[in-house]
Amino acid sequence: MTKGSVYTKGQLREQNLINSWDIGRSAGNRVFISYSNDTSRGGNGMRVQVVGLGFATDPAAPWYEHGCKTFYPRNIKEKSRAVLAAQAWASLQGYVAAYTEWERDPYSGWHPKGTMKKVLQAKIKEKA
To answer: In Å, how far are 91, 104, 111, 117, 119 from 86, measured between CA atoms?
Structure first.
């Protein structure tokens, strides 16, 4: 797992990649991992989700999880443990190959390593 992306939001937006969903879909990935920290009143709190691109990773999940397999870190110190658990779960379910390395995008999502480079190269070729 890398600490952060070498690409900026500006570079991605120039290629019409405005969120983690767009990046994963453009790369042809099946899933990506999302982190949100909605601790506002009525929010769902911190959560790490395995998001399926066009399908539910957890069809039995409650409505507010939108069909995503969700891991709840109790505090910010447990965030990395929840991300690792989500990555392992995605691998065990067969959504990614075993021992897949992950990279982070600037939108707080994680994708299989090489996704960012693959997507940007494809988008640049489209425009050429």
So the answer is: 9, 14, 12, 23, 23
